[in-house]
What we know:
Blueprint: E1 14-24, E2 30-40, E3 44-48, H1 55-62, E4 70-75, E5 78-79, H2 85-90, E6 93-96, H3 107-111, H4 113-117, H5 122-135, H6 140-143, H7 153-165, E7 171-175, H8 183-200, E8 203-208, H9 211-217, E9 220-225, E10 228-233, H10 235-240, H11 245-251, H12 253-256, H13 265-268, E11 275-277, H14 282-292, E12 296-300, E13 306-311, H15 312-318, H16 325-328, E14 335-336, H17 342-352, E15 356-361, E16 364-370, H18 371-383
Parallel strand pairs: 3-8, 3-9, 6-7, 7-8, 11-12, 14-15
Antiparallel strand pairs: 1-2, 1-4, 4-5, 9-10, 12-13, 15-16
Amino acid sequence: xxxxxxxxxxxxxxxxxxxxxxxxxxxxxxxxxxxxxxxxxxxxxxxxxxxxxxxxxxxxxxxxxxxxxxxxxxxxxxxxxxxxxxxxxxxxxxxxxxxxxxxxxxxxxxxxxxxxxxxxxxxxxxxxxxxxxxxxxxxxxxxxxxxxxxxxxxxxxxxxxxxxxxxxxxxxxxxxxxxxxxxxxxxxxxxxxxxxxxxxxxxxxxxxxxxxxxxxxxxxxxxxxxxxxxxxxxxxxxxxxxxxxxxxxxxxxxxxxxxxxxxxxxxxxxxxxxxxxxxxxxxxxxxxxxxxxxxxxxxxxxxxxxxxxxxxxxxxxxxxxxxxxxxxxxxxxxxxxxxxxxxxxxxxxxxxxxxxxxxxxxxxxxxxxxxxxxxxxxxxxxxxxxx
Length: 387
């Protein structure tokens, strides 16, 4: 077996590790073969590959819904086979495509299943349910007493995700959770999940067969084929340097080579970031954040020079009512030049866990680079502007 590629992978404290893990069946079928994979705390790792590649089997071995037949699968340094399977599953969030909400239970009762089993008090469960519903923009007073059939498919899937978060697990497993949704709802939930991950900082292992979804969501992507790991790397590195011809074909590298790939930051930046002037009030900032549906904005002076940034959470903690943004903004903004290498900028965002880079030229704010702008630029290079 050829070894998978681990370019630039930093070996730190791991929350989950596959060590030569295999799964075979009595009829001789080998679903997973000698899988070596480390998932670091707080990462969003996507397992991807064609049907039958072993991605779902690998995921289900983590919570012992499938038992490994070889190797060691370690969770916090302890083999999962040494855990009681029921207790193990209660400590790991799990979201599937079919959602699996209990139709006879209210939304609140569905969310509270695991906390109830773990003995949480009614008040604590109620407070957690309200907190989670607010996280995804669903008013607790409106939704907590409804039943699943009263919700749309997208809303039901949101509840499925919240149920996985309810007991505050460190690790969440997601098996093609958005596969049955229409494209628009699916994209909305992908963005919402990414935002949630940046808020709650969970470790997520996510299965999909959709490369666009993997590029949109992942910190790292594991490409599997016939039970073997072919490559495990950042999205940008897999696109630049696929491990073999199969990976190149699967991710569309052959198309990428025929297109003009963005090389500098200027080619991928958003030239109209959300900004306000230093003299604007915090009340104006909150109103603009709400209308533009963002939680962070850049602050500029009268000449258009970057002065700093503010976030909704920052303003709330500062108790900044009645003050100007120039008085309360934070000034440690991560910046990049418009003519710097685009791939270097994206790698920096990945390694430093940055949500964005402000693009500055001679002190003037020119734009902003986000993960979404990078994915859109790559998608345009591969599939054309029509996509």
